[in-house]
Amino acid sequence: MTRVLMVLTAARVWTLTDGTEHPTGFWAEEFVVPYATFVEAGWDVTVATPGGKAPVVDELSLGIAGGLPGTTKKLRARLEELAPVLEHPENLYEMDADEFDLVFYPGGHGPMEDLAYDEFSGKLLTERLASGRPLALLCHAPAVIAATVDDAGRSPFAGRKMTGLSNREELLNSFARKAPWLLEDKLKELGIAYDKGLIPLRPHVIVDGSLYTGQNPQSSRKLAHALVEALA
């Protein structure tokens, strides 16, 4: 059976430049859609967070920003069904990524707060990239590679082709104007060959060898299906 390690943020706020804490968490669609796709494919999915802390959903992802009312109603219902999984995640720091066929990081602003600075996660990502085994990062999740930067200021992801939420998409959120940094800028700063779709908020997936990235929440389904097809 194909095994997936799904790494969720444990952050509940995103600290902005003026010191305010914006409530956040994981983005509903980016967790629910890939999780359901993998389970439907018969895969075993393990959810883990830093320290094994119960993650929280970003409530914005269950409002107008998350889609039409019918869509967000279904997302909320699915999250309620998955409450036992989310309330008792595994401790990321006790996970061995080599035991999994796929490592998958969903987004939300949460990873900008915790996983982007998490040394254990950074080591896991560095080793996973070097192994040549599948690694997938969705929307804001590519922020986690900031934790892979070495003492010389270089990331092993430098030169790889990736996507992630664009500045244009991010700045649709008024509070993002107070962000410490924007994802697109950070990826370019790290030497990533950043790529984005021509039209914002449309599905866009980049595959560079065993590295898979999706640009935005709308890319959740396309990314998950690309992974299922690749690992079949």
Automatic annotation (TrEMBL):
Keyword flag Cell membrane: no
Recorded coiled-coil stretches: none
Biological process terms in GO annotation: methylglyoxal catabolic process to D-lactate via S-lactoyl-glutathione; proteolysis
GO MF annotation terms: glyoxalase III activity; peptidase activity
Pfam family, one: DJ-1_PfpI
Keyword annotations: Hydrolase, Lyase, Protease, Stress response
GO cellular component, one term: cytoplasm
Residue span, DJ-1/PfpI domain: 28-229
Family: Belongs to the peptidase C56 family. HSP31-like subfamily.
PANTHER family: GLUTATHIONE-INDEPENDENT GLYOXALASE HSP31-RELATED (PTHR48094:SF11), PROTEIN/NUCLEIC ACID DEGLYCASE DJ-1-RELATED (PTHR48094)
The protein's name: Putative intracellular protease/amidase
UniProt organism field: Prauserella sediminis
